[in-house]
Amino acid sequence: NLTTTLDATIQEIVEKYILAFDRALSAGPNNKKNAKKKGAENIAVIIQNPNNGEILAMASSGTYDLNNPRDLSGSYTEYEIENMDDEETKEALFDMWKNYCVSQNFEPGSTFKPVVVASALESGAITEANRFYL
């Protein structure tokens, strides 16, 4: 049996606001006229219950119709699709099918520093008196 913690109401809200945010960016003054894609390159949202880690919603921009997963017309013009070679078509499809919440990886960088410091303090490796400079 498969059990999911996704909440359909929260999921719907997240998807609605991803689309609205992307449309607002597309219409914004900072959008380049000749940009390949209008709006955000990627938008990814994960809503998690902080008490138990359950994933309540997970969505990313660039949706597609599950009944017609090879239809690129939602992201490209007919002219662009007709002029794609096989490699470009394959790349466009793979990009459309990505779930950026789970398929992109980024270095944790500065967002992970508090975890390292907390662990070092807790283990006694450092004290509050220690100073570090970069």
From TrEMBL:
GO cellular component: plasma membrane
GO biological process: cell wall organization
Keywords annotated in UniProt: Glycosyltransferase, Membrane, Transferase
InterPro entries: Beta-lactam/transpept, Beta-lactam/transpept-like, PCN-bd_Tpept
Location relative to the cell: Membrane
Keyword Coiled coil: no
Pfam families in UniProt: Transpeptidase
Enzyme Commission no: 2.4.1.129
Residue span, Penicillin-binding protein transpeptidase domain: 44-130
Single GO MF descriptor: penicillin binding
Name assigned to this protein: Protein containing Penicillin-binding protein, transpeptidase domain protein
Organism expressing this protein natively: gut metagenome
